[in-house]
Amino acid sequence: MKVPNSCQSLLLLLAPIAASAAPYSVEVLADNPVAFYRLSETSGATVALDSSPNGNHATFVGTAFPTLGVTGLTEEADTAAEFSGSSTSKSRILTPPLFNPALTSFTIEALFKTDATSQQAVVQQDGGKGRTLFFISSSNNDIRSFLGGATRSSGTSAVVEKVHHGALVYDDSTNKWTWYIDGVATASGTVNPESSNGGFFIGIHKNLNGNYFDGTIDEVAFYTHAVPASRIAEHVAAMETSPLLNSFTGAPVSIASGDSATLSWDIAPEVTALSISQDIGDVLPFTTNGIGNLRVSPVVTTAYTLSATTPSGTATESVTIYVDEPAARPQRNRDGQRNGHR
Ligand SMILES: [Ca+2]
Ligand SMILES: [Ca+2]
Asked: Within this chain, do residues 249 and 233 fall inside the same structural domain, yes or no?
């Protein structure tokens, strides 16, 4: 059958959409969050990195920080933060100010798994008019927001020990709030949110005197727009998707000048383009059944970034090969004068 060229390109565009979703973090980043805390830091970290390009890094706080390195809540090989529920450790995360809920559309999205039936904050804004925007109520574990002077119930109970996806979406143009629980719109209404420029606490009430989260929180994303229902559903579908990029490592990670190291990778079969920075370029030809490697001989300490792309998104991972460069030593020529050689 002859298909007009214009239709062929349309078919090419449509085909990837029918394919399975990209991994969770790739789907979130595709929607341009203003901040995205993957909480994949290891024990001892004080900074919760913002994985968006916006640099809104947050901090771990408390007499005991949340426990890092616990199993994440998606299929990505990525960890999460465990909160103890303790009133003495007051484990929490504090973001910088990200937006004023009275002045913009917004979306607050998080994965969580609670151990308890007490009232627990997932996300609470700081400041005098900061509100408990995303919490589990002690009333039947109902997932709720306190916004615009009243409770906005999702009508859905968090199940203890079950992983839930929650997203509170506010559309400033219509004043409409919508709760999505596990990818489905469960409740909506209209509201005029309080005006506050405070940062956002994760895992505690802003007064630090209650609503201690007890359980795991992961992949917390903030957006200054209303993420549409179709994208929320894609995010939830992506929770089950394996990572595009299983590993990217260098060995040895530290070499003497003149020696070489091997970069090795393990990628998903659906990756259609694979490249390494530092002018190395396409490395798909060096990849068999998702596994590949390449020898490199950097003359100075060099960071290599592997980018794995599918029709629905790109994942990247970096490794640094440290080069022990010879100590710069002034050399003398036969006249005993220093020359410019390093
Ligand atoms: Ca994570
Ligand atoms: Ca616990």
From this structure: no
Both structure tokens of 186 = 């469960």
Sheet containing 47-48, strands listed edge to edge, beginning at the edge strand earlier in sequence: 47-48, 58-61, 92-94, 200-202, 120-125, 134-136, 142-147, 150-157
Q: Which residues surround ligand 1, an ion (CB under 5 A)?
A: 38-40, 72, 78, 80, 218
Same domain, 187 and 231: yes
Q: 90 CA distance to ligand 1 centroid (A)?
A: 21
pLDDT tens string 16-61: 333 456 789 989 999 999 999 999 999 999 999 999 999 999 999 9
Same domain for 163 and 66: yes
Burial 164-197 (b: 16+ CB within 10 A, else e): bbbbbbbbbeeeebbbbbbeeeebeeebebbebb
The alpha carbon of 157 and the centre of ligand 2 are apart by a number of angstroms equal to 18
pTM of the model: 0.74
CA of 140 to the centre of ligand 1 (A): 27
Indicate whether 128 and 275 sit together in one domain.
no
The alpha carbon of 203 and the centre of ligand 2 are apart by a number of angstroms equal to 12
Task: Say how many Å lie between the CA of residue 113 and the centre of ligand 2.
Answer: 10
Same-domain check for residues 116 and 58 = yes
